[in-house]
Every structure is written in C-alpha cells, then in structure tokens.
Amino acid sequence: WDSGHIQYIFPKDKSQLPIRVLDNTTAAHGKSSLKLNTGTHYHPGWIFSSPEIALKPGRTYTVSFYAKARKAVSISGAVRSNHLGYWNDASQWESFKIGQTWKRYRFSFTHTPKGIFATPGYEYYHLYLGFPREKNEFNLDAFQIEEGTLTDYNPSAEVEYALTTESLYIRDKSMIEASISAISYAKPRTTETDVVLMDNHTGRILQK
Q: Does the model's pTM come out above 0.85?
C-alpha cells in the first residue's frame, strides 16, 4: 500500500464492498495501511488477489498479516484458488481474534489440490477475509505468503509494483482502464523508478 494502491484487482460493482481507504496515519510496516469500514449493509468479505502467486502441490505455505480493529472482534480467513474458472479452498478456514492494537496473525497449510484442481492449467490465488456484518473499523498491513514456516516480514523484491485493472483478461481490442505504480525498497532508497507496462505476449510497451 505504500505504492498508493489499495489492492491489485477491483470488481466493477463496488457498492456492496466495505468502505476502504489508504490510511497514512498508522501502519505496521512502511507508511500506509489499508482501512476498512464494515457495516450491516456491506458484503462481509474482502479479497486480496495477486496473479503472481503460484502454489506448488505438496508444499507447505504460511500466510501472515498485521491487523487491528476499533472494536475487538473475530474474523475468518482462507486462501482460495481459481483453476480454469473453478473455485476451490486451497486452505482450511481459520479464525482470528482481532484486537485494538497492531498484532501479527498467521496460519499454515499444505497445498494438496485434487481432481480437476490437480490438472495443468491457468490458476490464481487470493486471500479471503470474512468480517462480521456489523459496524467496525479495521486496519490491515504487511501481508505475506511464504513457503515453509513464518519469518519476519520482508518485501520479496527491491522494487515491487501494483496494478489496478478491471479484469485479468483482455479478450478483444477494446480499451481497458488501468494504472500501475512501483515502490523501491533498495538501500539506499532510490528517488525515481521507471515503470513499464508491457504486453506479455507481444512485448509491446503499453504504458511507461
């Protein structure tokens, strides 16, 4: 979120989602966190999705994140997969008691896809968090998924990027609105970073 993006993918219909903003007043890591305001008329879940995540069968993974809430409450969470358009729970659902101060939460699972989910094909994963349908305010930060056991939070690369778009696929020649940004964790910190959005199939530069 230090890059200025709330998440990778926004659905087109945002009316039922919890109110979400970047919060520059508090963070567990860096300078910003995600603030969610939940309520009785909002969807009880929030998805953190990244097309870069690929899980290998038989491997054990650990998911971790920092959270706090205005009012202490329990939430649920799981890693889900979309394999060739079919949804599946890649992990068991876990419960977390969120308090009023920053705390790190984690869970581990072994990826054991079965049936169609074990066949080769395009897939992506996301972390789904479920919130009670009641008025509350949450701050979330420093999400990490790693192979093996829990380690200290550490960005996976010196330069990380965030892409916001309406869809993972562009099926025709119609235009699609998208934005991209990057942040450098290099030491010493760089002040300027060139960001290039490129078509993966043709190599054509779409935005620079």
A: no
- Residue 198 CA to residue 208 CA, distance in Å, equals 9
Interacting residues of 101 by C-beta distance below 8 A, sequence separation 6+: 68
Supply the DSSP string of 33-59, one letter for each residue: EEEEEE-TTS-SEEEEEETT--PPTT-
The secondary structure element, H or E, covering residue 207 is strand 205-207
Q: Is 187 exposed, middle or buried (0-12, 13-18, 19+ CB in 10 A)?
A: exposed
Quick: pLDDT tens for 18-30. 667 888 899 998 8
Res 84: pLDDT: 76
Cβ burial, residue 70 (10 Å; 0-12/13-18/19+): middle
Q: Collapse the DSSP code of 115 into the 3-class scheme (helix H, G, I; strand E, B; otherwise coil) and give the result.
A: helix
CA-based radius of gyration for the chain: 18
* H or E stretch at 60: strand 60-69
Burial readout 74-93 (b: 16 or more C-beta within 10 A, e: otherwise): ebebbbbbbbeeeeeebbee
Judged by DSSP in three states, 116 sits in: helix
State pLDDT tens for residues 127-169. Answer: 888 888 889 999 999 988 889 999 998 876 555 555 555 444 4
Exposed / middle / buried, residue 157 (Cβ in 10 Å: 0-12, 13-18, 19+): exposed
Strands 103-110 and 33-38: unpaired
Assigned token pair, 102: 């920053």
